[in-house]
Specification:
Elements lengths: L16 H19 L4 H12 L1 H20 L1
Helix pairs in contact: 1-2
Length: 73
């Protein structure tokens, strides 16, 4: 074996725009849900809802689309 060190390849991560959008959305979701939270239990729920806001967004979108498609037939 030689005494030279093996160099690891550099990992380059491109993008990251989605992370910023998620972060801004999470802050917005926290502001929105914390405004109506009055009890400590509601504040804890608001915190976790802020973490998973895309799930609520997609669910509400599909519910809206289902109603719209149902009215067109």
């Amino acid at each position: 074996m030689s005494t030279q060190e093996v160099q690891k390849p550099a990992v380059i991560r491109a993008g990251g725009g989605a992370d910023a959008v998620y972060g801004i959305g999470m802050i917005g979701a926290w502001v929105y849900t914390f405004r109506g939270a009055n009890t400590p239990k509601e504040r804890v729920q608001a915190f976790f809802r802020g973490l998973v806001w895309p799930a609520f967004l997609v669910y509400d979108l599909f519910t809206f689309l289902e109603k719209e498609v149902g009215h067109q037939t």
